[in-house]
Amino acid sequence: MKRTRITRILSLLAVVAMLVAYTPAFAETVYATGIVTTNTNLYQTVSGTTGNTVLCTINSGGSVSIHSMTTNGAFYRVTVTTSSASYTGYVAYANIKLTTSTTTSSPTVAYYDVYGNPVYNGTGTTASSSSSSSSSTATEYYINGVRHTGTVGGTTSTGTTDTTGTTGTTSTTGTTATVVNCNEWVSLRQAATSGSNRLAKISKGTAVTVNGTSGSYSYVTVNGKNGYILSSFLSTGSTSTTTVAAGATSATYAAQVLSNYTNSSLKYPDCVGYIMVPGTNISHPIMFSSSLYYDTHTPDGAKTSAASIYAYSNTLANVTVVAGHNLRVSKTMFHALHDVQNALLSGSSSANSTFYIKMGNYTTWQLFAMYETKATEPSSTLTYNTMNAISLSGTDLASWINYQVGRSQVNFSTTATSADAGKLMVLVTCGDKYDSSTAQSRLYMFLKAVA
User: Fold this and answer.
1) Can you tell me the distance from the alpha carbon of 387 to that of 422, in angstroms, rounded to the nearest whole number?
2) CA–CA dist 162, 250 (Å, integer)
3) Do residues 307 and 325 touch, judged by C-beta distance below 8 A?
4) Do 210 and 234 meet the contact criterion of CB atoms below 8 Å apart?
5) Which end of the chain is more exposed for a tag (fewer CB within 10 A), N or C?
6) What is the mean pLDDT of the chain?
7) What is the pLDDT of residues 1-60, one digit of tens each?
8) Looking at the DSSP assignment, which residues form a beta bridge with residue 142?
9) For 68-120, how does the pLDDT look when each residue is reduced to its tens digit (9 = 90+)?
């Protein structure tokens, strides 16, 4: 009897196992289709290429069904059907080109340009757009709330993309970029990960052609090779025209900084301002995150020593604080503030005390105080000049202003009072010379909005 019962239990378990084995997998929603632009691996997870299981290799021109995109923008989750089986896994974002068709009508795929206007309605036609973009075809768009970059059919300012979906051939005239923000060279990698094989060392100042992006990396062509370079090491000027002719008027600078801010805010959701300092290479979006994320990350999200120019608040405060690193080797980010400082201290006729910063309703700011502290400065000075200053008002703000003017190394014609709350700003960066990781050497520049 006991053996019979055991036999029945085992038989029941076997049936259950068979049912489980043959239960169809849950069909994931297909939001769009795409084609593979180069032979690429379909990975089981998004843990990177090292040690990751390769489900299959998809040949160039192969079709895939797109389910979703990873939060870092590096991978699509797709399904591909081969002659032997169907596989669902992850493919590098840069290796997939969206096609103008969907395999499902619910939900409908909707593409929107950076202005939020529909440019492709998911049924093979181009929707009308009232935006001021240069083309009705998006270079930045959304699939079910997920932000993408690239092109979907047609011709855009960045080039022409073949979207026939039959050959998988991409014919793109990429934008030109220059290698920056490094000491001597950057790595050209085989894939868009830091652990990928290095294909070459690309020297600082080298021009490359940017064909697309994958997360924090750009897919480029340089010296006859294709590969990935961290976007933070490339300067394309694609988000804005940041140069202004020498001798330009204040109105020209003000108009340019406003334009640069508009373009940057469309590309970077966390952009809250833009700064340009005449006579220097300072021309950057101003970013904000409550966690000081941009102290270590570029606007594109890459973690680098350059990081970003960032504000301590997302709107104008009584005193708005904007910080940036002093990259002494590459002479980038806020390093050039020291050039302005030196010119002012020397009494040079070319010394500039007017900065163009788009924040709030203002674009033009003038210095009213400036000084550099030594390594032995009490740490309380940094706190008083920045974090504590944000909400100061009345007599406390008046005392703060008098303190800064009293320490200023230069006497400026612009004056500030407590009535200027909401129109005051402090720029802060590290000292001209590196002392130590705990040193309190800082350069402070204090400005008032005048227009």
Assistant:
1) 15
2) 44
3) yes
4) yes
5) N
6) 74
7) 455 555 555 555 554 444 333 333 345 666 677 788 788 888 877 555 555 688 888 888
8) 147
9) 655 444 667 788 887 778 888 888 766 777 664 433 333 333 333 323 333 33
Q: Is 340 helix (H, G, I), strand (E, B) or coil?
A: helix
Question: Which tokens belong to 270?
Answer: 């966390």
Decide if 359 contacts 286 (C-beta within 8 A): yes
Q: Quick check: bond before 107 cis, omega within 30?
A: yes
Classify 19 as helix, strand or coil.
helix
441 CA to centre of own chain: 29
Q: Please, what's the b/e burial string for 367-400 (b: 16 or more CB within 10 A of its CB; e: otherwise)?
A: bbbbbbbeeeeeeeebeebbeebeebeeeebbeb
Q: What is the DSSP string of 252-307?
A: HHHHHHHHHHHHHHHH-TTEEEEEE-TTSS-EEEEE--TT-GGGTB-TTS-B-SS-
Residues 6+ apart with CB under 8 A from 88: 28, 67, 77, 78, 79
**AA identity, residue 428:** V
The residue written with tokens 């084995």 in the block is 21
Task: Give 394's contacts (C-beta < 8 A, 6+ positions apart).
Answer: 418
- Compute the distance between CA of residue 227 and CA of residue 219 in angstroms, rounded to an integer: 6
User: Going by C-beta distance under 8 Å and a sequence separation of 6 or more, which residues neighbour residue 57?
Assistant: 39, 40, 41, 42
What is the CB neighbour count within 10 angstroms for residue 18? 10
